[in-house]
Amino acid sequence: MSAPSEVPAEINRNNPEAEIAVRAEAYRNWGRWGEADVLGTLNFIDKRKRVEAAALVTEGAVISLSQAFDTDGPQKGWRRRTNPVHTMTDTGTDAERGNQGFPHGIGGADDVISMPLQCSTQWDGLGHIFDHGFAWNGRRAGDVVTSEGDLVTGIEHAVSAIVTRGVLLDIGRHLSSESGELPDGYAISAAELDACAAEQGVKITPGDIVLIRTGRLSRARREGWGDYAGGPSAGLSLTTAGWIHRTEIAAIATDTWGFEVRPNEFDVPSFQPLHQVVIPNIGLTVGEMWDLDSLAVSCAERRRWDFMLSAPPLAITGAVGSPINPVAIF
User: Fold this and answer.
1) Domains of the chain and CATH, by start
2) What is the dihedral of CA 221, 184, 247, 286, to 10 degrees?
3) Vertex 42, ends 251 and 28: CA angle to 5°?
4) 234 secondary structure, DSSP code
5) Could you write out the DSSP letters of every residue in 71-128?
6) Exposed (0-12), middle (13-18) or buried (19+): which is 58, by Cβ within 10 Å?
7) What averages of pLDDT result for each successive group of 10 residues across the chain (330 residues)?
8) pTM for this entry
């Protein structure tokens, strides 16, 4: 049986079921790390890989890759996704007025935040997406995620896993050298990922986390959020599933809301087909809404596109995703 096509133009745009199914079967990693596995491709990050990543730190320079977590965010309420609501429960005003009830003049401030776990820079965990009722590693979706949360592959299992070598592929600059931004609806191919890596002089190796900059966040900053959350965007083609599988990357993240190209590559109803292949079948952890602009500038200045990346999720028991503040360290 021939491998699925890696050419976006060869997708049957009227049959998402078949296009998804052929890739899910071809690249499925179920059982690869045992029946009890809860990490998927994060297993590619081992102690040796972390030592390799640590050796990349020569300057001590740190760049945050997180968007802000505040009310001025991209969310519009789709599926109850809202921007964070930050509320002060104790303030300096309370302290000045002496109404906090503390002795000898001490005062303090305290606060609370309410937000969906995937409202800004975040990881999609392995319990986030299912394929025909199956979760990662072939488990029944209803046995994994219930009203009590992800009982099997909750994001808390990854809290010590996500420190490794990071690689930035600035596809926006590679394909659009003047603007550094790809047009909405542009489907990035496997060949273009390889060509970008070659142009930058960087090699993708097992256990890496690959960061894909499309320039979509740059445009949102310039023009306003608009439809950044859920609307049209450049992103990875469904045909990159084979590239993701054979490179043995540990995870991937982009500067877009949805990681894959939007609208998706079909003329009939479809929704996030690449998610359906890579999360429940390949076991890939997916990052979205990362801020890669400053990193891209720093990499270009250094002529160096790899770095130590630390991006652990919060230890939220049973969560299917997590907000993060990923950092690149040079």
Assistant:
1) 8-78+116-329 (3.50.30.50), 85-114 (no CATH)
2) 60
3) 80
4) -
5) SSSS---GGG----EEEEEE-HHHHHHT-S--STT----EEEEE--TTSSSEEE-TTS
6) exposed
7) 92 98 98 98 98 98 98 94 96 94 95 96 98 98 98 98 98 97 98 98 98 98 97 98 98 98 98 98 98 98 98 98 98
8) 0.96
